[in-house]
Amino acid sequence: MNDPGAETAIDKAEEEIEPQFDGQSDPEPVKKDREAREKQRHDYRDPSLWWFASTGCPLLAGTFGPLANAFSVCALVRSWRVYIPPGQNENYGSRISDPAWLLAINGLSLFFALIANTALLLNMSRRLRFNIAQPISVIGFFIAGVLLLVAITVFTDSPTYHLPLDSPAAPAEAHALTAAYYFAIQAAVIYFIVTGLMALTAWGAWMKHFAGGFRLTMAQRTLMLQTMSFVVYLLLGALIFSHLEGWEYLDALYWADLTLLTIGLGSDFSPKTHAGRTLVIFFAIGGIIIIGLVIGSIRTLVLDRGKRKLSARIMEKKRLRAINSVSPRKNRIRVSRFGTMKFDNDELDPPKRRELEFNVMRKVQACAERDRKWMALSISLTAAMSLWLLGALVFFKAEYQQDWTYFQTLYFTYICLLTIGYGDFYPQSFSGKAFFVLWTLLAVPTLTILISDMSDTVVAAFSNLTMWVGTLTVLPGEHGFRASLKMAARQLSTGESAHYAKGPDDAEHDRTVVDDITERLAVHLEETEMAEAISAGEGGHTDDRDRHFYHVVLAREVRRLMHDLAADPPKKYSWQEWEYFLRLMDTEEGEDDENQANLVPEALRQASTIGRFKKGVKAKEQTWTWLGQDSPLLSYKSETEWVLERLGTTLENELQLIRLGKDGERKGPAPPVRLSELVRSGGLKSFMERREKQKSNGDV
C-alpha cells in the first residue's frame, strides 16, 4: 500500500536535488568543499594574533581561571598576619585574625571570580551564548582582580598591617605576612591576565576578525574540566590531611602539591599518623592519574592545534619564497636555505611540469616541517629556561633568611623541575611556599611541551645518529660498510651533491605515467574479465559497461582509502598515485556542461595546458599547479582525507546522475576513465602479457 505522505516527500526532495545537476547550482558536497577550501585560505592569511585570540586565549583562561579561584580560597580561609614570639621564626608564629573589611573584600572577590569562571565554563560547553557569557567573564575577572588589589594595597599601607600600636605584634620583628597574603597577590595577577585574554577574544569577535565563539574542539573544552578537577582534588586533599596530621591548611596544600607532582622534597612535612600514611597511597594514585589526563590533553590538544597552525604559516611562507626564487635563466628553484632543485621549463609538457612541481612541493613540505619542529623547540626551550632562571631568582629573594646563593637556588629549582627532590634545599618562608605551588603548577605544561618538542627533534636526531653509527660498526646496512660510509660522507659534505636534487627523468616519466595508471585500473578486473574485454575488442564495449567499470573503480578505491585513514603518521602519496586519483575525479566538461562542478583544481586537471613560463611575467604571477594555492598538499586535511572526500563526492554525483537519467541511462559527461580506452590503447593487453611473464618467472 502506497503512502501518499512519503510520495510527496520524495517528490519534494527530487525537486530540490534535480536543479543541482541541471547546471542551475552546484551539488551540495561540491559547495561545501569550495567553502572548506576558502576557509583554509582564510586560515593561512589569518594573523597569528587572532588565532591566539580565538583558540589560545580560551584555553589559557580555562586553565588558569580555576587555579586563580583556588588561590582566592587560600587567601580567604587563612589570616594574612602571624605573630612571631620572641626567639621564634614565622613558621612557629600564632595567627592574628583578619579585619572584617578584609574578609568581606576577599569574599566578594571570590564571588565575582566564581561567577566569571562559571560563565566561562558555560560558554565553553555552549550552554550560554558567547555575546552574553563573554562580557560576564571579562567583567567578573576584572572586578575580582581589582577587589584583591584594593585589599592588598590598603592592608599593606599600614606599617603594622592595621595592628594596634600597643599590641605585642606591632613591632616589625614581631609579625609577618602569611602565605595567604602571597596567594592573594598571585590570584590578583592571574585574574588580570585572564581578563586581558578574555578581552582580546571579545575584541577580535566584535571586530569580525573571527566568528563569535571559541574555535575549540570538544576535546579541547574538556581541558578546563580536567584543570578544575585537579584543583578541587588538591584543595580537598589538603583539607583532609591538615586535619589528619594537624598541619596548617596552607602547609598541607604545599605538601599535597609536592606529593601529586612527585617532587617529594622530604622536608618537615610528611605523614606521621597511620591514617595519613594509609590515605596517601590512594591520594597520590588519584592525583597522578588526573595530572596524567591534564598532560595528555596538553600534548594531544594544545600541541596538535598549535602545530597545525604553525605548519600552515611556515608552509605558506616557504611556498611563496620558493615561487619567488625561480630563476628561468639558471633553471633553479630554491626550496630551502641551502637546497635547490632543477627547474627547466623550456621543454616541459604539462604532465612533466606537474611532476616537477610536485617534487618541489614535497621538498618544501619537508623543509617546512623541519623548521617547524626546531622553531617549536626554541620557543618551548625559552619558556622552560625562563621558568628555571626566573624561578630561581624569586626563591633567591624569598629565602633570604636561609642565606641561599643564586647558584643554590638554580640547583634547587633544577632538582625540582626534574622531580628528583633530594631534600637538601626546600622553601621555609611563607612567600617561598606560596610561590612554589604556583611555580610547580606552571612547570607541568611548560615541561610537557618541551619534552614533546624534544622528542621530535633532539631525541629523533640522537636516535638517527645511533642507527647511523650502528650501520658503520656492528650493524652494517644492506649495501655494506663502504656504501654506508660513502653515503654518510656525502650527507655531511657541504658540496652541491648534498643539496641538489634532479627533476624527473624524461624517459622514465613517459613510461611510468601510462603504465602506472593502466596497472591501477586493471587491478580492479578479474583475469577472466580482462580476457573477455580484450577478446571483445573495441567494438564490444558500450557506454554502459564503461560507466559500470568506473563506478566499481570508485567504490573499491574508497574502500582502500578507508584503511589509509588509520595510518600513523598520515600516509603521503607518490606523484603517480596523485595523478591516478586526480584522473578518477577529473570529470570532463563539454559544451553543455559549463556549470558542471569539478573537484580537481583547474591547474591540476588532465586537460590543463600549463607547461612553461610565460615570458615577461613575474614568477609569483605565473600559473602554478602543485605549488599553487589550490594545491592538495597545502590542505589542512590529511592527503587521505582530501582524496577520500572527493572520491566519495564523485561517486555520489555519479549515482545521482544515474538516478536522474531516463531508463537507467547516465545523465552527464562521460566518465574520466573507461574500459574501452584501456582496450583501444593496448595497455590492458600489455598488462596481461607482463602479468603472464611474471607468473612464468615465479615473481607472482
UniProtKB/TrEMBL annotation:
Subcellular location: Membrane
Pfam families named in the record: Ion_trans_2
Gene Ontology biological process: stabilization of membrane potential
Domain Potassium channel: 230-301, 385-458
CC terms in the record's Gene Ontology section: plasma membrane
GO terms, molecular function: outward rectifier potassium channel activity; potassium ion leak channel activity
Membrane-topology annotation of the record: Multi-pass membrane protein
Main localisation: membrane
Name under which the protein is recorded: Voltage-gated potassium channel
Alphabetical list of InterPro entries matching this protein: 2pore_dom_K_chnl, K_chnl_dom
Domain of life: Eukaryota
Coiled-coil regions listed in the entry: none
